[in-house]
Amino acid sequence: MTPLEKINSLKMPFAELKGVTFTEAEPDRVVARMAIRPDLCTLHHTAHGGAVMALADSVGAAATVINLPDEAKGTTTIESKTNFIGGAKEGATLVATATPVHRGRRTQVWQTRLETDDGKLVAIVTQTQLILV
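Above: the chain sequence. Below: its structure as tokens.
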């Protein structure tokens, strides 16, 4: 099974609710997309910060899953930091690209860059995932 097939075989109900689609997955890079629907927006038809953060969390968690050691039982987010750079309007698509900062025995740290589909930077998220054993 490829890393992308593994991610797409997981049951991630909240990612599904948000409309997240994983498009690329390798041990050093995971990419997903999410359309900015009206129900993911705040005032002025702009993506809610929580929706942006939740997309990044799903992508970082999926990246961790495909990098788990054999004895691991799963992962959970223990820290997340978001720098908002710009907004994304309703109708846009966010592209989230996660790359590893650290992959250790007990934790992994991923940085996710979130951009609109036309390349406008929206946020950078750094998160730490605990490896459950």
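The first strand starts at residue 21 and ends at 26.
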